[in-house]
Amino acid sequence: MNLFASDHKAVARRYLWGGLGFLLLGGLLALIIRWQWAYPGQPVPGLAWAMPESHGAMTPPAYTAVFTMHGLIMIFFAVTPLLFGALGHFVLPLSIGARGLAFPRLSVLGFWLYALGGALVLGSFAVRLGPASAGWTSYPPLSTSVFTPSLGQTLVTVAVLCAAASSFLYGLNFVVTVVRCRAPGMTWGRLTLTVWGLFFASVLNVLFVPVLAAATALLLMDRLLGTQFFIAGAAAVGGGGDPVVYQHLFWLFGHPEVYILILPAWGMVGDFVAFFSRKPAHGYRLTAGAMGVVTALSGLVYAHHLFTSGMSPVLGRTFMVLTLLISLPAEVMYLNWLMTLWRGSVRLTSPMLAALGTMVVFGLGGITGLSLGAVATDVPLHGTLWVVGHFHLTMGAASFLAVFAGLYFWFPKMFGRALHEGLAKAHVVSSAVLFLGVFGGQLAAGYAGQLRRLYDPYQYTYLKHLLPLNQWTSACAFLLGAAQVLFIVNLVWTLSRGRVVGANPWKVGTLEWTCTPSPPPAWNYDPVPVVLRGPHALSQPEVLERLGRDWMGQAESFPEESETEPGQAEGVGGMSTSGGAA
Amino acid sequence: MRPSMSMRVPSSEEEGSQRDAETRWLGTVLGLAAWTMFFVSLSFAVGWYRMREPWPPLPISTVLLALPGLPLVFSSAMLHRAARVQPVSPREARRLLRLLGMTLASGAVFVAMQAAWTHLAFWNHHFRIPDDGVPASAFYGLTALHALHVLVVLAGVFFSTVRLKRSAEVGDSLRRLSLGGYFVTAMWLLLFVAVYLP
């Protein structure tokens, strides 16, 4: 295996293994947090070697390090790289009929920056005083050397900078690839919704990742060079900075990051709902437009994360209105998905189940988010587990299920073998249900007043009665962890002995399934296909009648006039297919 | 329409190469436009502090702080001219090398002047980061971050010069590097307004 191969499919596979590895690590850290909340202070099974002085029990510093690293790893090193690095790299050029990405060497550089960041994260576990422990947001002054002097915090901050640089590079690469490298005939109106999602998310990546880079650069200078951008109060020598500036910069990136994660997921849901309902996507243009509106608004809503930071009430109200407004385009998308499902010939394949799971958990996450977008309800809920439950449903569960929807769908194209459907369905359904158990439990605990980030919530009398709820929630989390074994077994078994599949096992018409074998050759297409219609040409009466199947390839033309009934070919050009407008 | 005999029809290889060059150009434009957010964010942070309390004058005079702008603008202008030279003859190649040399030299003067001012402020005016809080942090920190960007562009020009000396085609790289030249010049102006002006 050439570790420096610049073929987008090879880069995607590298991101896939890296992302899955970090997903496993981040997941194990989550289980440790849940253990602490279910059995506070009791030794974590199997961790005595890591914390011999406490016989494997979590100490407060170890606990803060664990929840910090869980968040950081999941967002920067697992879910984002899986969505963009693995699925995006693999799918995007294939879906638009390109031979590769616009800048292949840039994508190699991006991967190795990500790998360097990952190595620094892993290395941080082995240094004195342990890894980062200032929360995944690295809020100063906690993240300055005054409060977290460990080398681990510095290493992780550099790692985040590496991950950010990697995101910037692939974001830029994706935008330019979509603009410049589409196959002939692949108009904007013929792109798959997945590509639209990846495109808009990449626009957000290139716009807002530099903001994170700026915040992180200033933080690193505070840690390493003694500058005082974010050190204030008694910790500052003279004058002093303001930690709230970091919060503004961080959330100006951090809130769009939610959409960076969910836009590709929405795109996939839009496509899969159409593919597996055997119907054109209802309101294709509206769905793509709604994703565009979300993209445009995403940077304008960030300050709802700062309602409790002493923000001016006028600003607070403005950001509240903008935040609540952003739910409207999301509702448009939901309605379109539901209309696509309505009276469709729905096939509950594993990607479809995962897409439906994404819809459900993101829907619940969105509804619970409304209370955080409004100032009056955000103030009492802000410091509680309600926020944790909400963002885990939107960013965690929805993105996770979308990753697996995409993986189950494109795995046959990636490796030429199909994952076992039974195991895949069991994995998806159990994961979706258990996600609702875990994060529903967090929402309930938050609503009851449990503060987030507490090492031992039960030291407060008013929270003691939440122990059974937290134990049930933790049981769901442990089962959720166990459910992932289904995927690991499926993956290992499939890669060694899985069923070899043909070019188009799902019977859909997009370019990657209809114009190239599984797995595709180095140059993807030979020759490059000429695109004739949109991506959702499903169950069209003309196609059913003339080809005897319910799908038609994006670059497929009808058989010659002489081979069909006279007079029928004329209607083909005007055939209405979703997104088929040039 | 058939092309006239005098019109040279580009080969498909040339068309592909031209298309690749246009793609790289677009990538550079988009990348630099997006990276502007980096400096805008830094300026936002400085603006926040300046709104909070009066910004003390820096210990170096504003005129002196403005001076490095001259070599930077000159360097960017030389790079702009270099990007438009077609080294089809030895004379043109020599001219291109001269322009690149001037770009590198004036860029180096800019970096040296910035280094001299920060050195002066630190040693001669006791403008120390811990004692002088955010203004000192912004002065040293943002100057250094900007200088790093200038050095990246200069490194690119240096490698292009080396490649040119080895008779490699560098026109495309120089056109994109000239965008980098405009970018660091514009960002220096932003830095000047945000940090150096009292």
TrEMBL record, chain A:
Q: Where in the cell is it found?
A: Membrane
Q: Which InterPro entries match?
A: Cyt_c_oxase-like_su1_dom, Cyt_c_oxase-like_su1_sf, Cyt_C_Oxase_1, Cyt_c_Oxase_su1_BS
- Superkingdom in the source lineage: Bacteria
Q: What SUPFAM superfamilies does the database record attribute to this sequence?
A: Cytochrome c oxidase subunit I-like (SSF81442)
Q: What's the protein's topology in the membrane?
A: Multi-pass membrane protein
Similarity annotation: Belongs to the heme-copper respiratory oxidase family.
Species the sequence originates in: Pyxidicoccus parkwayensis
UniProt biased composition (Gly residues): 570-582
> Which ranges does the record mark as transmembrane?
15-37, 72-94, 106-130, 150-172, 193-220, 258-276, 288-307, 319-341, 353-376, 388-411, 423-449, 469-493
Q: Where is this region: Disordered?
A: 556-582
Q: Give yes or no: UniProt keyword Metal-binding.
A: yes
Ordered alphabetically, the record's keywords are: Electron transport, Heme, Iron, Membrane, Metal-binding, Respiratory chain, Transmembrane, Transmembrane helix, Transport
Outline the extent of the Cytochrome oxidase subunit I profile domain.
1-532
Name this polypeptide is given: Cbb3-type cytochrome c oxidase subunit I
Automatic annotation (TrEMBL), chain B:
- What segments bear the compositional bias annotation Low complexity? 1-10
Q: Does the keyword Iron-sulfur apply?
A: no
Which region ranges are annotated with the description Disordered? 1-20
Give residue ranges for domain Heme-copper oxidase subunit III family profile.
35-198
Q: Which keywords describe this protein according to UniProt?
A: Cell membrane, Membrane, Transmembrane, Transmembrane helix
Write out the transmembrane intervals: 25-49, 55-75, 96-117, 137-159, 179-197
Instruction: Read off the InterPro entries from this record.
Output: Cyt_c/ubiquinol_Oxase_su3, Cyt_c_oxidase-like_su3, Cyt_c_oxidase_su3-like_sf, Cyt_c_oxidase_su3_a-hlx
Instruction: Report the sequence similarity comment from the record.
Output: Belongs to the cytochrome c oxidase subunit 3 family.
Protein name (database record): Cytochrome c oxidase subunit 3
This chain's source organism reads Pyxidicoccus parkwayensis
